[in-house]
Amino acid sequence: MARESWMGHAALGQVLTRLGRERDAEAQLGAAADKIESIAARLVTPHLRQRFLAAERVRDVFQTLGRTAPGAT
Q1: Which of 11, 23, 35, 63 is the most exposed place for a label (fewest CB within 10 A)?
Q2: Percentage with pLDDT > 70 across the chain
Q3: How far apart are CA 6 and CA 3, in angstroms?
Q4: Which CATH number fits domain 2-64: 2.60.40, 3.10.20, 1.20.58, 1.10.3860?
Q5: Distance separating alpha carbons of residues 38 and 27, to the nearest angstrom
Q6: Minimal CA–CA distance to 67: which of 34, 38, 41?
């Protein structure tokens, strides 16, 4: 369920970006980033956490926000 939640926020954020609704897009992408960070915090295996945060779709959320995914290398 958490995966679908962050992915839904991210997809909506991308659509809103294309529509020029930057403030709304940023809110949705911020919600996606918050969920991603919550998931990453619960991953106890460092390698798994690092792979999750380095995933292309995860990186896209943070890059669109002008941030780097925490712990991604």
Answers
A1: 23
A2: 96
A3: 6
A4: 1.20.58
A5: 17
A6: 34
